[in-house]
Every structure is written in structure tokens, then in C-alpha cells.
Write a structure and sequence with these properties.
single chain, alpha/beta, six-stranded mixed β-sheet, 9 helices, about 325 residues, seven-stranded mixed β-sheet, Purple Acid Phosphatase, chain A, domain 2
């Protein structure tokens, strides 16, 4: 790019044109802005009442023409069956997104599936079913999928974690990381849960670390990280991530120090607690992380349209999309 600019500057100088004019022409091209969508915690409830507004919302999202959408999990409510039929219905919904949609799992579709109201499934078996159905190799879901990198391909030691994805778009690194509610499955009263938690937690730590290193190598100018859980639920005043927190390693001991060191604009998107908000609640070593913005998506059949402009501070602006709304 620099060589091209110098050659064009020389050519313009021979023609009597100012190189400053070239710079002014190039700024808009280099400072590309775009919009994407984030949503989660839907559809909730029986198909007769939950599916129609969700499908209408998908139509509204498509009408806004985002570059892609990210669903941060909980594709069913916490009191409905974790059945193959339910999973197939939600995969069919993802197939209606145009263009791509990237999904990261929530607790409602696997960690909580041992509950009688969910069908008394073995959670790890349901997680395996999700991985088989929702995570095609090296690409997203949606009518026009995009290419993605997966932890399973890049880190053989964590080969089972096909759901941890990343991709670059216009100078921004996007990542999904499989961090879920129900304390990230750190549940001592559920057989096999602690073993699963420790394996996935180690993979998540490695994936977040690798993401920041990838951002450094590629010269990314911002990072967007999407997950299902609200990591601040259950925190206390004196220690936000105590030893009993399933978010201590991945968020408190990994994401926050990396964010503090990188000093890049970082948007953390999650669902879980069903309250739409955009704020800066995180601190590291007692200091607020002003460049780390938290966005919690709503759960009431609304989605967030996020505009990204890297020439602005902060570079992220959010407005809501409702079923039936048009651009």
C-alpha cells in the first residue's frame, strides 16, 4: 500500500497535482465503516408464540444488510426440551439469516439439559449434538457463509472446541469464546460437570490469549469478543472473580490483563441476564478499563445493530432493531 501511494504521489506531482489531494481521497477508503448485528436469548417459549416474532426479526435484520450477525447463545428457554427436534428448528432459523450468522452456545441448550423440564439429558451429549449440527468446518452458518478460523484447527491440544471461532473484518478481530451461564458449568452437583468445565476453561484461556497475539500480528485496530455468559453475575465488592467463580481464569485472569496491556478498543458482547445495556464495568488492578465496553443484548425479540467506525472514539455505536423495522 505504501509503495502504491508513493508511486501515485509521484505521478500526480508530474501532472501538477498535489499529493495532499491523494491523501484526502485515500482516507475514506482506509477508514472503512460497517455494521453487524448481535442478538441472543431467543427464541424463548413455545413455537406458536416465540417463532413468529423471531422470524420477523430475522427478516428485519436481513433488510438492514449487516456484514454478518452474531448470536450469543440460549437458542431456547431454560424450561423447554433440549431435543434434536428443537435443535433442528433453531438450525433452520439460522439458515434464514442473510448474510452470515456466527453462533456461540448458551447454557440453556446444554449445561442445563439435565433438568427434568429439559428432558433429563446428559449435558455433554447435548454439547456434542450442538457441535455436530451448528459448527461446519471453517465457515459460518447463514445463506451466505463466511470463512472462519477455528480453535480445533489451530490448536490440536484443544481439537474438540470447534465452537471457538475468529475472523478479521476491516481491521477488527472478531472472536467467539465458549463461556456460558450457570457459572460456566462449574457445578459440583452435576456429574461430570467439573471435568468438562476444566477442559473448556483451559481451552478458552488459550483461545483468548491466542486471539490477542493474532490481533498484534495482524495489526488489528479493535477487538470484538462474543460469549453467552454475563461474567459479572454473582460478583462481590471485594473480589469480582473469587475462586468459586467459573469466570475467574478466562475473564479475571486472562481477558482483563490482556485488554489492559493491549489498549485496543474492545467490545465484549454477551447475553444471559436479559438486560439491554452498554457500559464500562470492568477494572484491572483497581483501575477502570475505559477502552473495554460491555454490551449485553436484549432478550425481547430485539437485536443490536452495531456500527463500527475506527476513526471515532469509541468506534462502536448501537441501535436496536425490532421485528418489522426497516432501515
Amino acid at each position: 500500500m505504501l509503495v502504491l501511494i508513493l508511486r501515485m504521489s509521484s505521478m500526480l506531482a508530474r501532472l501538477g497535482r498535489s499529493p495532499l489531494g491523494l491523501a484526502l481521497l485515500l482516507v475514506p477508503a482506509l477508514a472503512q465503516s460497517f455494521s453487524f448485528v448481535a442478538l441472543g436469548d431467543m427464541p424463548y417459549g413455545p413455537p406458536s408464540t416465540a417463532y413468529p416474532p423471531y422470524r420477523q426479526l430475522i427478516g428485519s435484520i436481513n433488510a438492514h444488510k449487516p456484514v454478518f450477525s452474531i448470536h450469543v447463545g440460549d437458542i431456547k428457554s431454560g424450561g423447554t426440551l433440549c431435543s434434536d427436534e428443537e435443535f433442528a428448528a433453531q438450525r433452520a432459523h439460522f439458515d434464514q439469516f442473510d448474510p452470515a450468522v456466527i453462533y456461540t452456545p448458551g447454557d440453556n441448550e446444554w449445561t442445563d439439559c439435565h433438568r427434568p423440564s429439559n428432558g433429563s439429558y446428559w449435558p455433554q451429549e447435548r454439547l456434542g449434538a450442538l457441535r455436530d449440527l451448528f459448527f461446519p468446518a471453517r465457515r459460518s452458518l447463514g445463506v451466505r457463509p463466511i470463512a472462519l478460523q477455528s480453535q480445533s484447527d489451530l490448536m490440536p491440544a484443544h481439537a474438540q472446541f470447534v465452537e471457538n471461532r475468529r475472523w478479521l473484518h476491516a481491521g477488527v478481530l472478531f472472536m467467539t469464546v465458549h463461556v456460558v451461564g450457570s457459572n460456566n458449568n462449574m457445578q459440583t452437583d452435576v456429574p461430570g460437570a467439573m471435568e468438562e468445565y476444566m477442559r473448556r476453561d483451559a481451552a478458552n484461556v488459550a483461545w483468548i490469549q491466542a486471539g490477542f497475539e493474532y490481533a498484534r500480528r495482524t495489526g488489528a485496530r479493535a477487538i470484538v469478543l462474543a460469549m453467552q455468559a454475563n461474567p459479572l453475575l454473582g460478583r462481590n465488592l471485594f473480589e469480582p472473580f473469587p475462586s468459586s467463580s467459573g469466570f475467574r481464569s478466562s475473564i479475571g485472569q486472562t481477558l482483563l490483563p490482556l485488554a489492559a496491556a493491549a489498549q485496543l478498543p474492545l467490545l465484549l458482547i454477551h447475553g444471559d441476564s436479559h438486560r439491554y445495556r452498554m457500559d464500562r464495568p470492568f477494572r484491572f488492578n483497581g483501575q477502570p478499563l475505559q477502552h473495554l465496553i460491555r454490551l449485553e443484548v436484549p432478550s425481547d425479540s430485539r437485536a443490536c445493530l452495531i456500527s463500527v467506525d475506527l476513526t471515532q472514539n469509541p468506534p462502536f455505536v448501537v441501535r436496536l432493531i425490532e421485528p418489522g423495522s426497516l432501515p
